[in-house]
Amino acid sequence: MGCGCSNLSWCCWGSVYNASIPEAQDVANEEKSEVDDVPAFREYSIDTLRMATSGFAVENVVSEHGEKAPNVVYKGKLENQRRIAVKRFNRSAWPDGRQFLEEAKVVGQLRNLRLANLLGCCYEGDERLLVAEYMPNNTLAKHLFHWETQPMKWAMRLRVALYLAQALEYCTSKGRGLYHDLNAYRIVFDDEGNPRLSCFGLMKNSRDGKSYSTNLAFTPPEYLRTGRVTPESVMYSFGTLLLDLLSGKHIPPSHALDLIRDRNVQLLTDSCLEGQFTNDDGTELLRLASRCLQYEPRERPNPKSLVAALIPLEKDTEVPSHVLMGIPHGSAALPLTPLGDMCLRMDLTALHEILEKLGYKDDDGAANELSFQMWTNQIQDTLNSKKKGDTAFRHKDFKAAIGCYSQFIDVGTMVSPTIFARRSLSYLMSDMPQEALNDALQAQVISPVWHIASYLQAVALFTLGKENEAQVALREGSVLENRRSEAA
């Protein structure tokens, strides 16, 4: 580019990084670093996580490659309605359970608004699972490479870059400068549409529990020599992400550097961004990417200088992320259906009518399973108890329904979700909300995408005085009901 440097070295781009970092930025980062509403790290039982993920149901898999991923990630929900992401390692990973626990505890001490924070872990038997905050609005890869409604705006792309740099700066300040596989699938979006860095990449990922590996498509040069990643390797990966943000594609760094040297910047720029930024802004981002992609690790910037370079580039800072992303937000995101409104009003009589209209055909499989397995007087009595429960429920004799359904559930080897739903409503009618909540959760374990189970949880939680948790369950029920309607 006229300076005679073969590798875009410091003489070309150094001026961008020589400026001092304003003290106000450090203060802002400190204010954003600690998170008050995230619980402390804890150990979970496998039974708790099995319940939260509806028995690790395929419907709850959110891994990039689904169930074929080497370590599968599930979405789930704890009894307090906190949504979680559960990463379940394959059987050969982490043979030393104590080593796994200690590593998870260290990562679990981090708490930052720029991270999808680690809430806990489980290491029972040969099970190794991590539990993190669930981010409902997909990955950067989804929004950048596979968007459906609108391409990501320039202002939002800059915000992603800045927030990611702030996440890395925080982790580095806490002694966790290494990150495993930094890529567009590791950046996830929260309820507000803000980008966060997944905490899973902060865990060491090898059998010895001491080293980091990488599966990146474009690996740092030093990794090819040593087989290890360093904090400087993470900066190289950051550079590839900047190219992703600029181009909307995953461009090989070597190809990108050739285009930069030849001044073919237009070939790097996403055509969807036309008119959204000036040439100077695009050049600044390319300069930053080129510094991160230096062949020599020592010539790459550190996270703190990344933050300093990105802050002046910010656009539309007053516009919320969910607006820039075009993501529905809050209670206005999805108006309540008539059924959802019934639950909000806690209209138990209307809910009874709805469960009655569903009928009892869904229970046939449970009854047939019992009858085929072992036709004895005891099983016949069990089947009769279910029929008596149905009759009692139909005639609103809820205490009798509870007793009859309980006899069937206690003996039965296969119970349909509608049976748990009817007993749940019977408990609500009998002023036993905690028991009703337990049954609604069981119904969702059996049928993870059944909206009625979520709605019953909402009513039980409202009755228990847990307003926030109830609203979460109500929104979830609305989402599931609308999906069901769209698929019909």
Can you put this structure into words, describing what you see?
The structure is a single chain. Helix 16 (377-394) packs antiparallel against helix 17 and helix 17 runs antiparallel to helix 18. Helix content is 49%, strand content 7%. The chain contains 21 helices and 8 strands. Strand 5 and strand 6 (129-133) form a beta hairpin. Mean pLDDT is 83; it is low at 1-32 and 363-374. The chain is of the alpha/beta class. The radius of gyration is 27 Å and the shape is elongated. It folds into 3 domains: 42-133, Phosphorylase Kinase, domain 1 (2-Layer Sandwich); 138-325, Transferase(Phosphotransferase) domain 1 (Transferase(Phosphotransferase), domain 1), CATH 1.10.510; 338-366 and 373-486, Alpha Horseshoe (Serine Threonine Protein Phosphatase 5, Tetratricopeptide repeat), CATH 1.25.40. The strands form 2 sheets. The chain has a 5-stranded mixed sheet, with helices on both faces. A 3-stranded mixed sheet has the order 4-8-7, covered by helices on one side. This is non-specific serine/threonine protein kinase. Keywords: ATP-binding, Brassinosteroid signaling pathway, Cell membrane, Kinase, Lipoprotein, Membrane, Myristate, Nucleotide-binding, Serine/threonine-protein kinase, Transferase. It is a lipid-anchor. One of its GO terms (biological process) is brassinosteroid mediated signaling pathway. Its EC number is 2.7.11.1.
